[in-house]
Amino acid sequence: MKKKALALLMVTAMATSMLYGCGSSGSSSGSAAATDSAAATDSAAATDSAAASTATESGPSSEPVGNDAIKVWVADAVVDFTKEKCAEFQKENPDYANFKIIVEAVGEGDAASNMITDVEAGADIFGFAQDQIARLVKAGALETVNPDMLDAVKSENDEGAVKAATVGSEMYAYPMTSDNGYFLYYDKSVVTDPSSLEKIVEDCKNAGKNFYMEINSGWYQTAFFFGTGCQLTYDTDDTGAFTACNVDYASDKGLVALKEMIELAESGAFTNGSAVGEATNLGAIVDGTWDSSAAKELLGDNYACAKLPTFTGSDGQTYQMSGFGGFKLLGVKPQTDEKKLAACDALAYYLAGEEVQIARYDAVGWGPSNLKAQQSDAVKADEALTALAEQLVNTIPQGQYPDGYWQLGTSLGDSIISGEIKSSLSDEELMAKLQNFQDTCMTYAK
Q1: What beta strand segments (E) does 130-208 contain?
Q2: In the chain, which stretches have pLDDT less than 50?
Q3: Cα–Cα distance between 203 and 224 in angstroms, integer?
Q4: How far, CA to CA in Å, does 164 sit from each of 118, 127, 183, 223, 238?
Q5: Domains delineated in the chain
Q6: Rg for the chain, CA atoms, rounded
């Protein structure tokens, strides 16, 4: 449905945002917080008007709510936080104080599947990982961003987050974090130079330590292919359908990337993996912000972080490892009632705004997409987020990818780990593997 211009809504929302200063932090698809779906404790918070309440339910309810209530799905880690912020929103926006806001624990990894299964019974506002946006648009589960808020949302958030919330020519969600990506955690008593992949592997090998990276993942292995200049993206139309695949892995630069992956796998220090909590004898690991606490606990005084290193390719050139950047978004479900739609948009804008991003970082460490929040002293002092920020400069914002691509990436990595794809193969044989990979990727857009 088309949205009407809501002057009162924007006056209220913009006035609220002007009260605040800067700062914030976080994670997405790989985040433990993002996949948490445990139930929250029932609670209510009255506003000044005593007319509204913010409730938490035990897991996602299976029934739609009426036009006098707003159902919100967020990760379990931020249920209580979101409840508090919803109460503050209603206190500051009395026009929406009569809505009952129900906050339920549904992680970003589950929200899209639940919404697509039953849009009507799903949440009115829900957090989700940006790689799910095409599916949600196609299912009719997302309303476009309110046109009165569109310019503000675009200008207040970083470019990657704005792109992640956009399908075709329309923006369908409110950016909430810009913190899903990977970088290097390392033991500084072992690794003497985190800027070079060859030196990291050598240091780990000499110390009898393991270097972890999950190369059988279409998410992590792009660090090599994008690093050498390859591309692999999909175009989508306004319905979220895949219309074209832009890929050049079967090329000289793709061959350099593949050979580097093989060299790492055969190094003797390599162990496939990307979770600090599952690592043993750790020297270094490519992981994300969601594991920062576990990394600090494991490495203690030797805890250190850095952007991904460079590597020297088989052609003698030096390449900076790249990869994907990812984001958490807040979506609003299409509504039949204009007043409820206005309330949902205002609340989503508030929950994804600068001040709440700052507070969310303070509460759970989620990284901000808001440009001013990214400049806060607290965020800039966070070692993991600093390393990620340095790495994100070298990454490609993750767009929409078909399920088949992720399965194909796993297959490619497994073939390297098992030794089926190995350094003794000729360039022609390796190029044939890349050509097959590329041709298969293109079939997903037909």
Answers
A1: 166-167, 170-171, 174-180, 183-187
A2: 1-53, 56-58
A3: 21
A4: 24, 13, 20, 19, 14
A5: 20-180+326-396 (3.40.190.10), 183-322+402-443 (3.40.190.10)
A6: 23
Tabulate helix, strand, coil % of the chain (nearest 5): 45, 20, 40
pLDDT at res. 26: 33
93 vs 28: CA distance, rounded Å: 30
In angstroms, the CA 232 to CA 159 distance is 19
Query: What's the confidence (pLDDT) of residue 426?
Result: 98
Separation of alpha carbons 377 and 381, rounded Å: 6
Q: How far apart are CA 126 and CA 73, in angstroms?
A: 5
Give the position of tokens 């494991």.
298
Number of Cβ within a 10 Å radius of residue 2: 6
Strand partners, 242: 236
What predicted TM-score, i.e. pTM, was given to this entire model? 0.71
- Give the Cα separation of 270 and 278 in Å (integer): 15
